[in-house]
Amino acid sequence: MLKLRMKLALFNLSSKLVFTLLFLILMPYLVERISLLQVDNELIQKREQVITLISKIGIEPFMTSDNGNVFGSYNILKEEFISLERIELKEDVNYIEVSQRLIEGEKITYRVLNYSFKIDGNTYLLEVGKSLSSILHTQENIKKVMLLFLVFIILITFLTDLQYTGRLLRPLDLITNKLKGISNPSIFDKSPVRTTTSDFHHLDDALIELMRHIDKLFQKEKEITVNISHELMTPISVLRSKLENLLIQRDIDAEISTKIEESLKTLHRLQSLVNSLLLIARIESQQYLREESFSVQEVLHEIITEINPIAEDAGIIINEDFENDFLIRKANRSLIFSMFYNVVNNAVKNTPPQSEVTVKTNLFENNFIATVTDTGKGMTEAQMSSLFSRFKTKPENNVESTGIGLAIAKSIADFHGIEILVNSDIMKGTSFSFRIPENS
Amino acid sequence: MNVLIVEDEKSLANEIASFLKAEGFLCELAFTGREASEKIAVNLYDFVLLDIGLPDYNGLDLIVEARSHGNDTAFIIITARGTVEDKVKGLDLGADDYLAKPFALMELFSRIQAVARRKFNVLNQNLKVGDFVIELQSRKITCRGNEVIITKKEYELLQYLIINKNKVLTRNQLYEHIWGNILDDQYDSNFIDVHIKNLRKKLNEHAPTPWLETVRGVGYMISLEK
């Protein structure tokens, strides 16, 4: 894909090249035509001069018996000649041609004007010639100069065009830059781009208007989610208290208490779902503060310490491979904790007993990277593609999970500008990498 | 202790009251903000459980009113709108604790106990269970003078079970107490079993723990005869 500016420059250049090529093909012909026309004019002028002279002094001075009724004259360098001859002609002639003449043993190409006229019943042929060698030479020079000039002009216009289109398209660049890396319409820069081009102005206006509209819709959707969630909390609360009060009665039999516990569990799942939706809606509508600075390594260590008893129980070792620490700024610690916790916990759950989970940190190209690798079953492409979608990744071995944990992790990552990369090999395991930019 | 329950959802208010009464509290109910405001002005309560999402009143104003009259009642906010700002605002206005709906009644009870210890300096004596003593101040467990080394989570579990002694607690309730809501989705019943197993092991090295019962199909309970 090429940028518009580049495309315009390329088009510009190629159109100029085509134009030049055409000119180069036509130039010799044109130059020749023009120079011949010039010569012909001169010849006609000379002819007029000769005719005027003859009408003044008569033909006799030219036609003497000495020269056998032929008069010829040429200058030293044989560039021009005039000849006058009495001859018999069937009809009048008046034309210009290119012909070669032998003058003092030298063959020279001339442009020759042939003109016949009558005086006292005699027909005379006047020939006025001009050598073409100097003309051809001039032609070569003109061609060279023109070629140089052309190249120069093309170069200059190409550069100025490039500069100018760059300036002209700058607002478009600004608009595309505004669109780059936008994950959410709420972070779109809604200040108008300064431009005197009405098309860009319309484009920018339309985009801003569109973003505002989408933003509003998103906001509304989130508001609805939040409101519904809140509305659901009260009935869940009532049910829960009733069941809890029932369960702590000392005289109920085991079968009933098991059933109550099961109902509580189901209710808890409902509560989890609503809470998760609420959490995501709140993260996405920026309701959480981001004003803490803390060590990522410390958070990871804390999570590993919390999960370790469960891992140990299953014979899973969690390796801490910390190469670099990183102080994350402008972040929400409990959300970041939750994000890593979900993924580390997931890794432990997906790893078979007697194997390992590794949590690694390192710096790569100015980014801090935390990687959680398990040695579980791995995932298929299809599973990976729906990994972060809500409710799509319910693992078969985990009945309690609502399958929303990774969706939560993803929205927390987005909220903090953290990129999550997933790598998975069937039967080998999966790794989640969190790329935290230095300037976050 | 006297408790005023301010909650517009009548059946929830009744359930909370019935639970607290069983724990020996004297409970009064207020279903509207106006009613609550009058009761707080007239009576002296140790605790006010306050739902701030009242239809006729901004619940937080009740705290402001009470505090402006020099009333030192402990307020525990309960709300379905558990936003961070709500929480910060509530605590700034002088609330003593904050619980998001839905919560476990046992969690509410344990919060009340914690506030009572902190605020009224009561219930601060150490808890005895079997041969073990739980020192609430220093968050330590000793057995005949020897300290039992357990993790923070294990301590929290044990304390929660003891405060709610003689009541069976489900794994969900225990999990929620330790990890709160933020890790909700990752709820795994195995978590609690592993922690209880480890806790039992550590305690059993010092003395037997027949009082820490597993209630089949339900959860765990610390059973102590009163």
The poorly predicted ranges of chain A are none
**Strand residue content of chain B:** 15-25%
Q: What is the rounded Rg of chain A?
A: 48 Å
Given this structure, which CATH class of the largest domain in chain B is correct? Alpha Beta
| Uncertain stretches of chain B | none
What is the H level of CATH, i.e. the homologous superfamily of the largest domain in chain A? Histidine kinase-like ATPase, C-terminal domain
Number of domains of chain A: 3
The structure class of chain A reads alpha+beta
Helix fraction bin of chain B: 40-55%
Average of per-residue pLDDT values of chain A: 85
The most extensive interface between chains reads: A-B, 51 and 49 residues
What is the global morphology of chain A?
Answer: rod-shaped
CATH fold naming of the largest domain in chain B: Rossmann fold
Largest sheet entry of chain A: 5 strands, antiparallel
Q: How much is the radius of gyration of chain B in Å?
A: 19 Å
Concise synopsis of the structure shown:
The complex is a heterodimer of chains A (440) and B (226). Chain A is of the alpha+beta class and 440 residues long.
Salient structural properties:
heterodimer; A: 440 residues; alpha+beta; Helix Hairpins; Heat Shock Protein 90; 3 domains; 5-stranded antiparallel β-sheet; 5-stranded mixed β-sheet; 8 helices; 12 strands; 53% helix; B: 226 residues; alpha/beta; Rossmann fold; Arc Repressor Mutant, subunit A; 2 domains; 5-stranded parallel β-sheet; 4-stranded antiparallel β-sheet; 42% helix
